[in-house]
Design brief:
17% helix; 732 residues; alpha+beta; Rossmann fold; 8-stranded mixed sheet; 4-stranded antiparallel sheet
Length: 732
């Protein structure tokens, strides 16, 4: 690998970069037709030159998209170090054995496993921690040909552990089809229920039936914004109505004329094996934002006649619930920015008189669950986590000792059994699956995740603080080799997100070592809009305050320069999905700050977001153009609306999956066309398309490695790194 000092060979790098850029300019990317459409929002006219690209089925749009993909492939394949980098990333990503997504049913454990060398995780189970591993579902065997892949989306075992409902989809589309496998025979049953994307399955105590979520069937006149909206909850009995079409609806918008269910993405029912009650959830965006909750005795569920009682609306701040007997435990943000846990009886549900079990404290409660013996909760405490065991009445609590500082996630319990399993990992510490036994008062490594072969003592991580424009301190986690010096020579990959209250908690990514080997730095910035400091931190980067998210990100990058880690010519910005809003700020607020922008499946044209399939559920987070304040919030942070002609923009790569159900591909198409037409820098602007992928969820290991290799080799080329410079084309 090329050492850091190669970045000091500035004169050589600039000369090579100039010649390679000029060579690429000879044959530029295909030019998109300009067809302006003007919308006026509350007196502000906004021109959209590429509105027609929103029709992804248009043959002209498809031809241009494929031509862009071919051009990008040609450019990237000409980078000398790209193939070797891809091999290195794939080797790092596939070297360790991974097990995660654990679910416990008594002593039986269900989980996903990915062996070294595998391309996709498989569904497995074992009868105790030390038991033999059995494979239930192998998605690699379900693909119809080598050009497409199938991925496991979700799974849910029955309470007795005999059956597992699971969803699979093709090409990263997340368009799940529900199946059921019988462990007693190892065979898949006849059930095949489509339109179950992101499904929540809750088994009844008979272990022969379950509640599940299903989206309405879209017709030829269904607008894109309604294709995955207002999912309804049905009840299914094994062996009956194999396709689900005759299953009885029990909850959802329009199911009962006497029940007002708000619009939203999904509805589902939650159960517990020891509770005679059912809780129904109307979830606006299939997340843990405050939602609407209902309750009913299980015995009274009767299709559209079910007498659901509403117990919480979004303004009540309830974000997660658990049933136990005749009581409901719930996590709330109302009056508690760092969250609290409360409890109330379900025969007399009244939020106003709910008992506080775990009050708001100095730490941020991240998650909780109920085991047979206690409440277990993970708390975010600065840069690391704490795990707490709290008695069910809240009177006794104790901190559980952890072997190292990191993130505690995926609390795994069986509500009928004592103790908890959980995942622990850090920036330089690979995941461990630990189990706490209340009898021994100790958390031990289960060995379910073997020690990683990729951990390195040569890499370290620490937190520093940037100062944003308004004086707010922004945590920045810096991951680098221990021998990195502050001489301004290091390629720095700045990563951020800042939406939905989701935090960038420490996680282990072995593939980063391929970047660090070039003297690189990875800087993860904890910008407003995330949840690092609770709900107040989230709201400080939402709607009309969303501009804070963008400015915090740029301030974090500037901090790296001020602290002599790097310089602008070595700065790379990277974010995905809602992080596309952040990439817009990196591109446009100060076009000279970053040298390279890597925008993955980015949300770029926020003014048009409501028209796409995943648009309406996101209105509570980002706002709506139907209101004046909503428009101004969206317009101020719309990357697409603020591209200016004649601006010397950085080098940019926009990536998308052709099957993306979350951020429509036209975001990246429109953004690529607009920046290609506007930039005056001569630096490349590429559109990368994966036709066997969606939002990245469900992509295979090789797909992920190829994308990283494309992006990082592109960045290293643009920064002048020797070994990544294409040969200049000979003059005619």
């Amino acid at each position: 690998m090329t050492p850091t000092k190669t970045f000091l060979a500035i004169s050589l790098a600039v000369a090579v970069l100039a010649s390679s850029t000029a060579a690429q300019a000879v044959e530029g990317p295909p030019v998109a037709a300009v067809r302006p459409v003007t919308n006026t929002y509350f007196g502000t006219a906004v021109v959209d030159n590429y509105r027609y690209m929103e029709n992804l089925k248009d043959p002209e749009v498809q031809r241009w998209m494929k031509a862009q993909a071919r051009y990008t492939r040609k450019v990237l394949d000409a980078i000398p170090g790209r193939a070797a980098l891809a091999q290195r990333i794939l080797a790092l990503g596939g070297k360790d054995l991974h097990r995660d997504q654990f679910t416990r049913r008594g002593q039986r454990l269900f989980y996903e496993v990915m062996e070294p060398g595998a391309n996709l995780p498989r569904l497995a189970y074992r009868d105790d921690i030390d038991g033999a591993e059995h494979i239930l579902v192998d998605p690699a065997k379900l693909a119809k040909d080598s050009a497409h892949h199938v991925s496991l989306d979700w799974f849910s075992p029955s309470w007795d552990g005999r059956y597992v409902a699971y969803g699979v989809s093709e090409g990263g589309s997340e368009e799940s089809v529900l199946h059921v496998v019988d462990l007693s025979t190892g065979k898949t049953l006849a059930e095949r229920i489509d339109r179950t994307s992101g499904c929540v399955v809750s088994w009844r105590n008979d272990n022969r039936s379950f509640f599940y979520l299903r989206y309405p069937k879209a017709g030829p006149d269904t607008p894109p914004s309604q294709t995955e909206y207002n999912a309804v909850t049905f009840v299914h009995v094994l062996g009956e109505h194999h396709d689900g079409n005759a299953d009885q609806a029990v909850f959802g918008k329009g199911v009962s004329a006497s029940l007002d269910v708000p619009e939203g993405q999904g509805t589902y029912v939650l159960l517990a094996p020891d509770s005679p009650y059912a809780v129904a959830v109307a979830n606006r965006n299939m997340d843990n934002a405050p939602n609407t909750f209902y309750v009913v005795p299980l015995a009274q569920i009767d299709g559209a006649q079910t007498p659901w009682q509403k117990i919480a609306a979004p303004e009540d701040g309830v974000i997660d619930v658990r049933l136990r007997g005749d009581r409901l435990y719930f996590m709330s943000q109302k009056g508690a920015s760092r969250f609290q846990i409360l409890s109330m009886p379900l025969d007399r549900p009244d939020l106003a008189h709910a008992e506080v079990v775990v009050p708001e404290g100095a730490n941020v409660i991240d998650s909780f669950d109920l085991a047979g013996d206690a409440i277990y909760l993970a708390e975010r405490a600065g840069a690391s986590f704490q795990l707490q065991r709290v008695s069910l009445d809240g009177k006794d609590s104790q901190a559980i000792g952890l072997p190292f500082a990191g993130s505690v996630a995926s609390l795994t319990v069986d509500p009928r059994e004592p103790g908890v399993m959980f995942n622990l990992q850090g920036w330089v510490k690979a995941p461990r699956e630990l189990a706490y036994d209340p009898q021994t008062h100790a958390a031990i490594d289960t060995g379910l995740i073997p020690p990683a072969k990729t951990e390195s003592d040569e890499i370290e991580a620490h937190d520093e603080f940037a100062t944003s424009y308004d004086g707010t301190r922004i945590p920045v986690s810096i991951i680098a080799r221990k021998d990195v010096t502050r001489d301004g020579s290091h390629p720095a990959l700045v990563i951020g997100y800042g939406s939905y209250g989701d935090s960038m908690d420490p996680y282990y990514d072995a593939t980063w070592q391929a970047w660090l080997a070039h003297g690189g730095i990875v800087a993860v910035t904890h910008i407003r809009g995330g949840g690092e400091y609770g709900e107040a931190w989230h709201r400080a980067g939402q709607k009309l305050t969303k501009i804070n998210t963008l400015l915090d990100f740029n301030a974090s990058a500037q901090y790296l320069i001020d602290q002599h880690y790097t310089q602008s010519k070595y700065l790379v910005a990277n974010a995905a999905s809602a992080g596309g809003i952040v990439m817009g700020g990196a591109l446009e607020i100060d076009p000279g700050l970053f040298h390279v922008i890597l925008d993955d499946v980015g949300d770029s044209d926020t003014l048009r977001g409501e028209t796409e399939p995943n648009g309406p559920p996101n209105v509570p987070e980002f706002g709506s153009t139907s209101t004046e304040s909503g428009f101004h919030g969206l317009y101020s942070t719309s990357a697409y609306a603020h591209v200016e002609d004649g601006t010397p923009y950085p080098a940019v790569m926009f990536t998308t999956g052709a099957n993306d159900p979350r951020v429509a591909s036209w975001h990246m198409l429109k953004m690529a066309a607009r920046v290609q037409a506007a930039t005056s820098s001569g630096r490349p602007v590429l559109l990368r398309v994966d036709y066997d992928a969606g939002h990245g969820i469900g992509s295979s290991l090789s797909q992920a490695a190829d994308q990283l290799a494309d992006e990082w080799s592109f960045a290293l080329w643009q920064m002048g790194e020797p070994g990544f410079q294409p040969e200049p084309k000979p003059k005619p």
